[in-house]
């Protein structure tokens, strides 16, 4: 029996980008353990980028004292569904942070986060579970971020911003700083488009695009 085994759930682009980060973290901590991909499209095991890829049922049946899984799925609804299944099956969510990610003071991050290379999380910040922060993203001071939030590469989240559950912030988006008495709010399930410049709060469930960002009306 293995004492601990680890896996990155998802062998597509997101998972393959995070696998080296996960591998480096284990090396940095001096942890010697088997490290797998989980891919539910597979019937038989395969090798992906040097790691064995298996489906979830096969992973669940592996004999180990503890199992740890990073969910590398961009779709936040699927991420939540998988997280709930892992909890039912007694498998731990795994937080992975790149060697060169920057973490400052008074930060609280929920389990299952994925912090890619060159991510910065500054001071007095609270972040929920299964947060994805892609390359070169940052979160400035006094922000509150909910569960299953996704930052694409290069997101600039300035101070005093509240981002609610399942929001998606696109590549290169800039969110203007709020104030302590009036934080800028990105509503639950909102999508901020690539390169958008957000200057005011965004309602739940809408998509905003452009500079300044405006609600994208459905035709």
UniProtKB/TrEMBL annotation:
The record marks 142 as: Increases basicity of active site His. The keyword Lyase does not apply. SUPFAM superfamilies: Trimeric LpxA-like enzymes (SSF51161). InterPro entries: AcTrfase_PglD-like (IPR020019), PglD_N (IPR041561), Trans_hexapeptide_repeat (IPR050179), Trimer_LpxA-like_sf (IPR011004). The active site is at residue 141. Coiled coil: none annotated. Residues 7-86 form the PglD N-terminal domain. GO terms for molecular function: transferase activity. Belongs to the transferase hexapeptide repeat family. PANTHER family: ACETYLTRANSFERASE, UDP-N-ACETYLBACILLOSAMINE N-ACETYLTRANSFERASE. This is Acetyltransferase.
């Amino acid at each position: 029996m293995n004492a601990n085994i680890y896996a990155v759930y998802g062998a597509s682009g997101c998972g393959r980008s995070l696998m080296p980060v996960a591998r480096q973290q284990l090396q940095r901590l001096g942890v010697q353990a088997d490290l797998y991909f989980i891919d539910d499209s597979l019937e038989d095991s395969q090798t992906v980028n040097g790691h064995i890829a298996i489906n979830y049922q096969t992973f669940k049946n592996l004999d180990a004292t503890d199992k740890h899984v990073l969910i590398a799925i961009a779709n936040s609804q699927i991420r939540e569904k998988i997280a709930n299944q892992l909890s039912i099956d007694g498998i731990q969510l795994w937080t992975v942070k790149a060697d060169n990610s920057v973490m400052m003071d008074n930060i609280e991050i929920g389990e299952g986060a994925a912090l890619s290379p060159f991510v910065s999380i500054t001071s007095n910040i609270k972040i929920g579970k299964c947060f994805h922060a892609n390359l070169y993203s940052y979160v400035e001071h006094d922000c509150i971020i909910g569960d299953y939030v996704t930052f694409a590469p290069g997101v600039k989240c300035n101070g005093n911003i509240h981002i609610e559950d399942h929001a998606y912030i696109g590549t290169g988006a800039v969110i203007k700083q709020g104030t302590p008495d009036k934080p800028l709010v990105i509503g639950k399930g909102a999508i901020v488009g690539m390169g958008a410049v957000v200057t005011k709060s965004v309602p739940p469930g809408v998509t905003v695009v452009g500079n300044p960002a405006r609600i994208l009306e459905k035709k």
